[in-house]
Automatic annotation (TrEMBL):
<feature type="region of interest" description="Disordered">
    <location>
        <begin position="110"/>
        <end position="133"/>
    </location>
</feature>
<protein>
    <submittedName>
        <fullName>Chromosome segregation ATPase</fullName>
    </submittedName>
</protein>
Amino acid sequence: MYLPPAGAAPELEGEVRALEKSLGALRAAIAQAVRGRDDTEADLGHLRRRLATKIAEALPDDAAIRGRLDSAIDSAFATARTTLAAHWQEITDTLTDACTKVDGELTAKRRAHARAEEESREQRRQRERLTAG
């Protein structure tokens, strides 16, 4: 268990603020990663639709070739979606793990800060009793 040195409250307060800022940045990064994943999915869907339209325009009278090309494109886009989704999930998981660790450290520093402040108050009370006594 971490015990702060006497007079450590101001230093711990700064560490708490830095950890809170880091935690906020990590949470914002997680939200951005989720938006990035969603944007990637939307972009792939849009691109897939554009390709299908261009193929239909290029081969208006050949349904068999259009069908084979559509199948190939569907397969390629499904693979791309799966791969990209896995990468976005890995990014999100990494950020979430970091968030959990920083949150744990923040909790420990807040407790240490509270102990340091209580110790400081207790030392003041003892000095006041000695000077009053």
